[in-house]
Amino acid sequence: MTYSVAILGASGYTGAELVRLIATHPGLEVRALSGDRKAGMAMSEVYPHLRHLDLPPLQKIEEIDFDGVDLCFCALPHATSQAVIAELPRSVKVVDLSADFRLRDPVEYEKWYGKPHSAPELQKEAVYGLTEFYRDEIRGARLVAGTGCNAATGLYSLLPLIRAGVIDLDDIILDMKVGVSGAGRSLKENLLHAELSESWFPYSVGGKHRHLGEFDQEFSKAAGRKVEVQFTPTLLPANRGILAATYVRGDAAEIHATMQAAYGDEPFFAVLPMGEVPAAKHVRASNFVHIGVVKERAAGRATVYATLDNLTKGSSGQAIQNANLMLGLPETEGLMLAPVYP
Amino acid sequence: MTYSVAILGASGYTGAELVRLIATHPGLEVRALSGDRKAGMAMSEVYPHLRHLDLPPLQKIEEIDFDGVDLCFCALPHATSQAVIAELPRSVKVVDLSADFRLRDPVEYEKWYGKPHSAPELQKEAVYGLTEFYRDEIRGARLVAGTGCNAATGLYSLLPLIRAGVIDLDDIILDMKVGVSGAGRSLKENLLHAELSESWFPYSVGGKHRHLGEFDQEFSKAAGRKVEVQFTPTLLPANRGILAATYVRGDAAEIHATMQAAYGDEPFFAVLPMGEVPAAKHVRASNFVHIGVVKERAAGRATVYATLDNLTKGSSGQAIQNANLMLGLPETEGLMLAPVYP
Amino acid sequence: MTYSVAILGASGYTGAELVRLIATHPGLEVRALSGDRKAGMAMSEVYPHLRHLDLPPLQKIEEIDFDGVDLCFCALPHATSQAVIAELPRSVKVVDLSADFRLRDPVEYEKWYGKPHSAPELQKEAVYGLTEFYRDEIRGARLVAGTGCNAATGLYSLLPLIRAGVIDLDDIILDMKVGVSGAGRSLKENLLHAELSESWFPYSVGGKHRHLGEFDQEFSKAAGRKVEVQFTPTLLPANRGILAATYVRGDAAEIHATMQAAYGDEPFFAVLPMGEVPAAKHVRASNFVHIGVVKERAAGRATVYATLDNLTKGSSGQAIQNANLMLGLPETEGLMLAPVYP
Amino acid sequence: MTYSVAILGASGYTGAELVRLIATHPGLEVRALSGDRKAGMAMSEVYPHLRHLDLPPLQKIEEIDFDGVDLCFCALPHATSQAVIAELPRSVKVVDLSADFRLRDPVEYEKWYGKPHSAPELQKEAVYGLTEFYRDEIRGARLVAGTGCNAATGLYSLLPLIRAGVIDLDDIILDMKVGVSGAGRSLKENLLHAELSESWFPYSVGGKHRHLGEFDQEFSKAAGRKVEVQFTPTLLPANRGILAATYVRGDAAEIHATMQAAYGDEPFFAVLPMGEVPAAKHVRASNFVHIGVVKERAAGRATVYATLDNLTKGSSGQAIQNANLMLGLPETEGLMLAPVYP
């Protein structure tokens, strides 16, 4: 059976990545595409690499006929998403890739995003889209909130350890090295090739990165108490990928065993042998996650390394994985594409 | 029906690319892998990005049991290939990715590769693997010789024009800009990141590039007379891709129409609207070819631009496309993966 | 003796490059900097790499006191430059880095730049800033028009050959591979890291690149007849540098000898041994030019390769070289910085 | 006055960087160059970017006449250096860029480098080359041991804080992001462009990086007690630069004030305003160091960011700074070259 999907905000990188993945997904077909500023254009004009596909033109959202659309991917900017989703027919399932429905607490939402939420009712209904940890809720959800890409990387690095109680909850530092596509196709000076190539620098420093809201919510929930980690990303001269070093206090062997237990049966995860470390390129353009655990020389210190592709497992691949569950399709369908190397 | 394949020389980039493509190919499965210097290692040690796959270990070629192997991809170094293929059971079909069987004339082979061919009988039997131009022969072949990656790019740019007689045969210049993976995973100083990043330079200058042998053979055959083009590649700080500018004398509109006629029905080709030009990234990690035609300001001058991914359409994707034909599978099976962007 | 200079348009890359070079130039000091949209900011806010220098703040042009300014570098956008320069005191020497005064013929200017020139009197007065070919005129000039960076590369490749009459004037093709900084710090989608890294593509195709105006002017003048070359640049995933392949008809040995005769005594030029080719990185961040000549396999065919750094020898370094001449300083002063490698 | 220097091991990147810097240094001239495997070649064959310089040919060390050589830079591999330096005339001052004389304690040397030191007498005599902290000793030294490039970055980040007692000595984590030229020009698979571009990965994990020996020595000495930090570098797809995030416990304002006090008068240092962070490219190809301090959201937590160019301030620029002191030249002579941007 083939399900029809609409992609709202298809002119951004996550939109293009959704189309790329759906192109060889046997259970999904693209029924409609929206791109407000590019409405009227063919997708192949905006993204010539999709030229071989027979795709509907970019439309304004209000022009889309949602009859026959089974599921809608919303890859719209933050804040826009909540307004648009509130207007969609209730019969359409929704996977939202924006930040709008990630935080359950409206107070937290306002704290991190700077204004009140406009659709608090929907916010309650939304299921957090970290598939491996919310699988059952996602299966039955109408609205799934895709995680932040950095958030996913950090959550995968820590959630099993917090749940199992094998690390000190008050001394966790996340240092992420991230490619530039996470910032989208926006025209900002520091995203120019001439600025970024041969450069790298931290950003959103000092506890200001918005994905901290997701960390606080999920880690505190898992621990049953307030947990606030330290997290800073560094932007790298690379297009795709996130590699996180998570500095923790705990027994490395116990941490490694906990990771193996948590992810051993997961189709998209590989826990490397103790002491081995992943490389960002080993998962590029794929839905896979590689995790390594290293014992440090100081007693009781360990480091967890995790890598994923921000556009695939960190957003659009995750979205399709969730859509598969919501539509009753096999969870891995369309997502077993091997990483592209070199 | 699933066919079993062996990949000889799986530790190189074209070997890894074959495995990547076969991973989601419904009609092929990897039965055996060889890698002489890495025999005994798991493929995931050599290429951790393939860690999620259940693959046979790397063996020495002589350890491989070819019983039950339907087709063998040979991704071995030049000269090694001819010796190995001569020893394979005749029941095994072969797609060779080396240069060993591309040139029909032993004299030409020796001229470009510096020593006599050791398997001239096989050389006669081999079919040149430029799928769109040798489809029928490939279907019936036991041994197909994959083209050079630069050769493919140039042949796609020119063969329809030479066949149609719409360009001057004595004034053709091919200027190719190529990514570094075409040079393989070999340890050479000028392939180091520190050397190549922020640098670019021509190589094999002065009519010395070996793919000229393929050009001479195929263009002369198509023209029914001797044709010798001028060709120089420039190595770029990029991993995948070839973009060729072909400078010709001819009527741009006629050239464009000829291209449309030649490639209009080809599943992997897009001929862009007149005056538009392709970008290397628009076909990255895919089997697609984008072609553009531009009219120059000087009367009777035009430029043909063509781009493809050297590891996919330029070698391993082409190899699978040919294998599909040889095995009676649909030609595009496993090859419709969309390009990875950005 | 130290001369005082102003830099108008200091917030662009050529402005920053001027400051970089002047920082260790013993004969020049920066008296004033303009940057209209960034007026009021410190240069170190716009370019933190210049933080160690004691520089005047960015001002609006009309706020600058030109008393005591010996020479003004204008790194303003095209069309703005002509209006601004017309208002400068006649006592201030000017090196203009824009395109405004490169073309002597107002008709040609309008043809390539799309509107009439607003300061045709100044246009007459301007000396074309290709130092090695206009040294004497530059020494006595008040207004020098810096060349286009692609134009400089092509002119260096061809002017000696055209003057010496050793190549066919009607069959010249310039294929340039260029880094992205030539496009400036402007916010354009195709200049984003995510778009350009791992991509490359031709632009201004079909005889539309504006530097053709400079080629037509200078080559025709050198030849004493109309010469119109073919020229297309390809944008690469690299920040600095231009490498030109110039395809010509002529005797390679004679071409090589002509180059050696033309550039043998030039302090910034190296003519490589016959058959050797330059690499872009060998001149990076320097004022040097490397030139190679290659004999092609077709009789009477040769290729000239030339590389320079577009921001240094192609614009700001050239500008300082010209300023040195105009101010009576040694021509190479401040410009002997060795290339940065790797 | 001009001093004559020899560079032993000139065919590596630090050797080439020494030549680049000396090219415009008014007080130094290159008298001799060694490069064992490349003896007999011109430096311009090994590094064509130095083609414009009049340099002595590469020789074997034993062929060099040290008469008239005032100072010798040793850019030889570890272990080789100690044997060579032991044979040099005592009248020649030496700046060693290898690891051979960094560690004062022979036991520590053997622990980190795996074999006994062969010149323990020289080891005692050597002064550690962290200029800003050993200025007086360096002035009078005959043998100065250049620091590791990562070591320098970490020492600059922490030494003032440890001396001032403003951070917790038992909870220090150094996360460094480093460019590839620190690994030298060696032929290793993971240094290939195809491997590293679009990839990044930690290495020497688990407390195994040899620069920890320098950290242990210098931090313990500064603290007057044993201090063992945690340190892991991540290799990035970039050529030059190191950016360290140092995670500490301490009052951010106090840390910032301590940094300003320590570095306020240093010619090569900039301490950014509180909360601002450096970028690797802001110091590229220069001898400058940029330092930022950020207050974290957890009480008593701060992060120190420091960036320098591994080939300049991290090795060859530092070496020249030290040589200037040893020869009685102004400390900054030849080293005020502005960073290259973009």
From TrEMBL, chains A, B, C, D:
One GO cellular component term noted in the UniProt record for this chain: cytoplasm
Enzyme class: oxidoreductase
Active site (record annotation): C149
GO term, biological process aspect, one: L-arginine biosynthetic process
Keyword Thylakoid: no
Predominant subcellular localization, coarse grouping: cytoplasm
Domain Semialdehyde dehydrogenase NAD-binding span(s) in chain numbering: 4-141
Enzyme Commission designation: 1.2.1.38
Pfam families tied to this protein: Semialdhyde_dh, Semialdhyde_dhC_1
SMART domains linked: Semialdhyde_dh
Record keywords, A-Z: Amino-acid biosynthesis, Arginine biosynthesis, Cytoplasm, NADP, Oxidoreductase
Keyword Cell inner membrane part of the UniProt annotation: no
Pathway this chain belongs to: Amino-acid biosynthesis; L-arginine biosynthesis; N(2)-acetyl-L-ornithine from L-glutamate: step 3/4
Subcellular location: Cytoplasm
Catalytic activity: N-acetyl-L-glutamate 5-semialdehyde + phosphate + NADP(+) = N-acetyl-L-glutamyl 5-phosphate + NADPH + H(+)
One Gene Ontology molecular-function label: N-acetyl-gamma-glutamyl-phosphate reductase activity
Coiled coil: none
Free-text function comment from the UniProt entry: Catalyzes the NADPH-dependent reduction of N-acetyl-5-glutamyl phosphate to yield N-acetyl-L-glutamate 5-semialdehyde.
Family, similarity comment: Belongs to the NAGSA dehydrogenase family. Type 1 subfamily.
Protein name per Swiss-Prot or TrEMBL: N-acetyl-gamma-glutamyl-phosphate reductase
